[in-house]
């Protein structure tokens, strides 16, 4: 994904949340219905992370998703190298769920959105392959792609903030 594409996607996301016009709600499946596995009772989110997620803009939420996916991929690779099959599987599923969430929330009404959807689909399928075959090379490939998406998205957010600040808007 190019920087300009990421910036366009970020600006589109920001316009949708700051626009005073309200669209009719569309019937869609919630992300929990589509891809999320139930969280085990022993796993509790950090209260600071919960607060950050509740107050984050759509652009910041996307950044949090990318960072979470990278974290789970790192831990999954470690578990894979240590032969901890069950732990690796759980971590890989969490990374897959994040990619699935990115797919669900992506607007595909533009060429950029369609291109990103194809990349997300590719990453999702490759994560399944890596999980089944215990292939760390595939895991590293997907890590690199997610990292590139994350870095590009972060640059787009920063550039957008700079532009809004210069135009007298709130950063």
Automatic annotation (TrEMBL):
GO BP of this protein: bacterial-type flagellum assembly; bacterial-type flagellum-dependent cell motility
Protein location: Cytoplasm, Cytosol
Coarse class of the protein's main subcellular location: cytoplasm
Record region (Disordered): 1-47
Bias (Low complexity) ranges: 1-19
Keyword Chaperone belongs to the record: yes
Pfam families according to UniProt: FliS
Record key words, sorted: Bacterial flagellum biogenesis, Chaperone, Cytoplasm
UniProt KW Cytoplasm keyword: yes
Highest taxon above the source species: Bacteria
One cellular component (GO) term of this entry: cytosol
CDD domains: FliS
Similarity-based family: Belongs to the FliS family.
Protein name: Flagellar secretion chaperone FliS
Organism: Marinococcus halophilus
